[in-house]
Amino acid sequence: MALLSKDRTRWWLVAAVEDARTKHRFDLWAWVVMPEHVHLLIWPGHVAYKTDKVLADIKRPVGRKAVRWLEANCPAFLERLTVRNRNRTYRRFWQAGPGQDRNVYDVATAHQIVEYIHNNPVRRGLVAKPEDWRWSSAAEWAGKEATILKIDRTRPRLRGPQ
To answer: What is the CATH number of the domain that holds 16?
Structure first.
């Protein structure tokens, strides 16, 4: 579902990423918010790192705010987010599963991922050029003014698993 198609929800996501960045001390290298998914390329600030904790601290507040907003403004839509199983009933804003996380160990691959992330809106026909999509770091990467969610310009040495 295109649950990230409204600016309201995108702003909640931006705030959650900023809070998680502060809490977990990661650098944000590239990002894009699409109507139904998000891509983030992050660099951990320390060796012992739990991606699942970072994702939870980003996803949980956005999902909670969205459900509260829907309860107050569009309760009929909540049925589309409701999951019922044998033991409980709950609302799921984010798709089930761990996402598509992977570690990157070389600069060339990191740059390919940045390009892939930034070209998402172009491939979908939302804009003609990556830097025209407001909800992305593409403009900042292209040398334009800092975007909604500022990227970190760090250049740590990429290395393989320890």
So the answer is: 3.30.70.1290
Rounded to whole angstroms, how far apart are CA atoms 68 and 60? 12
Q: How far apart are CA 138 and CA 156, in angstroms?
A: 20
| Residue labelled with tokens 């060339």 | 108
Which pLDDT tens digit goes with each residue over 109-146? 989 999 999 999 999 999 999 999 999 999 999 998 87
Residue with tokens 């975007």: 147
SS3 string, 18-86, reads HHHHHHHCEEEEEEEECCCCEEEEEEECCCCCCHHHHHHHHHHHHHHHHHHHHHHHCHHHHHHHEEECC
CA 74 to chain centre: 24
Whether 160 is covered by a domain: the verdict is no
Residue 153 lies in a domain: no
Are residues 91 and 67 in contact, defined by beta-carbon separation less than 8 angstroms? Answer: yes
Cα angle vertex 65, ends 64, 68, to 5°?
A: 85
pTM above 0.85, yes or no: yes
Calculate helix-pair angle for 7-24, 51-73, nearest 10 degrees. Answer: 150
